[in-house]
What does this fold into?
Amino acid sequence: MARFQLKCTECHQNFPENPDLLLCPGCSRESGHPSLYGVLEIEILDPPSRLPAAPPADSGSLMAFLPISDPSSLAPLAVGGTPLLPVPRLREKMQMSRIWLKDDTRNPSASTKDRASLLVAAKALEYGKKIIATASTGNAATALSAICAASGQQAVVFVPAAAPPAKLIQMQSYGARIIAVDGSYDEAFELCNAACREFGWYNRNTAMNPFTTEGKKTAALEIAAQLSGEMPDFVVVPAGDGVITSGIAKGFAELESWGLISKNPRILIVQPEGSSALIRALEDENEDIRPQPGATSVADSLVVEAPRNSRWALKLIRGSRGIGLSVSEEEILHSIPKLASLTGVFAEPAAATALAGLEKAIRLGILSRENSVVLMVTGSGLKDVAAAGKTLPEIEKIAPGQEGLDRLVRDSIRILG
Amino acid sequence: MARFQLKCTECHQNFPENPDLLLCPGCSRESGHPSLYGVLEIEILDPPSRLPAAPPADSGSLMAFLPISDPSSLAPLAVGGTPLLPVPRLREKMQMSRIWLKDDTRNPSASTKDRASLLVAAKALEYGKKIIATASTGNAATALSAICAASGQQAVVFVPAAAPPAKLIQMQSYGARIIAVDGSYDEAFELCNAACREFGWYNRNTAMNPFTTEGKKTAALEIAAQLSGEMPDFVVVPAGDGVITSGIAKGFAELESWGLISKNPRILIVQPEGSSALIRALEDENEDIRPQPGATSVADSLVVEAPRNSRWALKLIRGSRGIGLSVSEEEILHSIPKLASLTGVFAEPAAATALAGLEKAIRLGILSRENSVVLMVTGSGLKDVAAAGKTLPEIEKIAPGQEGLDRLVRDSIRILG
It folds into this structure.
């Protein structure tokens, strides 16, 4: 196990491990700005001296980098260890010889969020907390539900009632108690916090719980291992609250500070235009975001009025000499079949946003075709097939038998045209 | 690479590798019984002397066991290498100390079919065949589409127009040409064969193409490696055409004949009552199935009137001292949330059928609780969430804010009851 302490990302005060500590008591604010102040960072006190082996096994193989006392705390579900794909056809299409996809659709519940939930559930077990609650646009709740099903813990999940049906049915099948909030993700987030205070539940809310960022860090560790420490110029990350962003940026910054990788990749975050508070803060060079009331996008996983982890995420992005770009709904939707048909990786809208962002960055000259790039593919297209279907033509039916074959012969040029 | 020849599963005649050879010319029949006669088996001529290493990487790590000339023929998509999960909570519930899930939902397109499509596409590349066609209830077509997207080959897929929407949208996103046949899977199968003859396409139809069985064999190789050759008493396999069954049974039989595993596990196949031609042939001790016109089930992946690979599958099941069981629609549907909530693995109806079969086998005394068992989980629940939702209660909405919290406090016992 790695020894660790908690460090405030605002005032840098240190705290020893404490099951009831979420935000820095001095810096956090109960009211006022909707972003979280005093998010706590896990500081590893005995850094490992080498990268994990590649290809990576699941998160259990990363114990030296994680704040866990005992590997048996981890739910038996093989989280992480996802492929880093070289995608030759996308490279050819983009005329870029060094693109990789980090295919996190291949986690147990089919999204990156499993990484965070695995670690939070392990800490809940170590702390003797029986019930774990989270608010979520859908994937984090599903991830927590899956982990708790495997480990025998109880998940209570707060989701916008309008979340895609596949996500709701998936988390319900895992046996979670679902609180479908007739409102936004931001409202579900606040209700979850209130319920955790009221009932003493362990709060997995993203960024509120310091182990969420730490769990997502494992994606960066794996990328570094898979590239043998020879890091890409850019890593493209779809952003909502900014916690996947922070986890990945923190992971790389840590590895660089320990001398285990060649350089700290620049983080390119991508948000939908309709939910782009982080992008605007980057453009305006602000430390705080301005909330975006009524934020909306087909990329439901990224829809948040006030990104909760904005302050730390913005610091880490800037620390990596990173940048942000927003993309249109149309760009997102067209990226789904483009990514799938050029790589074999079927992404949900939020995840396809990474490709839309890369293309826009190339168009704007922010990235050159000589740059090396890893795209984070954060969730499976099976999570929201209605969105994937929006740009696809209707499928025509044909008759079976000779009639069908005759028609195929007639149409053969069109079929393969 | 493994050297190999083709061997007829009926007359045992051998044939050298031949790109245009599908079934044994002597034994296959153009008409008559709808099951395939003369399915060809791949016979490896230079057996490896040890099991692959565990945990297994993707199929690329199994080259010594596979009839491929060059690992670079395999599409860059990291097929296979899926976890074998120990599932402590399911073990407790079943009062069986040795159950594992082979979680093949974690393949690139989220089903076991990726294993077959990977190998067929690699052979098509080696043979210079530009277009690959398959008929499918959905998953095989999706798998071929994903593999071809990654490799740059062209997939033409024949599916029943009534396939679940998620599967259709997924394969369409991958860029396949879709022939939606207004009829049954069996009719799609015949139309695909006719089109392949007409246009010279490489025919990936299950069992017709000998590499489909061989690709599915990789699941058995991985299970053997993951258990260090200490094999379970039973492996439970959901069955449609009987090709996953044959692949897995063949893999174990091969490993046993080469002295690499402790014993050949008994195969327990499971079919839905509404599509159970193989089960009835086993019960009646017949070598041929009787077709089941109008076969139907919520487990769409298993719906076939005349299992094409019935003759070889029945031989292999019997050779393993195996058995077959059919399960009801209700048993299948209830197995989905049961499996998900006890293991964190969300299965499509066809895959959940394995758990329904295990439970029935225990009830009937066919298996004892002392037996060790691996369940093949062949496809993700995200492929058909409508089916998964059928047994779940409606989710109630609650208001955000203080009103919602008050309601939670009032309902707290019910919420966690």
